[in-house]
Amino acid sequence: MGKITNETRDEVKRVVVSFFAEECESDESEINEDTNVIRDLEGDSLMFLELLEMFKKKYSLDIELKTIGKYVVKHPVETIRQIIDMTLLIIQYENKISELD
User: Fold this and answer.
1) What is the CATH class of 6-100?
2) Under 8 Å CB-to-CB from 14, ≥6 apart: which residues?
3) Whole-angstrom Cα Rg for the chain
4) Could you report the per-residue pLDDT of 19-42, keeping only the tens digit for each?
């Protein structure tokens, strides 16, 4: 399990905002933690999976996409804040995220 620091949270936030700005062709300055990815940026759920794949590689995470999928069904993410928080949980708990329910 990974330890979450303020630096980790800041880095995750930067990557998430940058990723969605690029993918949705938006200006980073217009994206904040309350931005709804689907409604405000016209993004989709596949983008979230692509983002998670990036974090899996970056942090050498041992987590299966089906585990993430099951967790997200119970805990949907729509805003940048929710995506950041979910990503931090995945970094911290990896496959054990399913035990958080």
Assistant:
1) mainly alpha
2) none
3) 13
4) 999 999 999 999 999 999 999 999
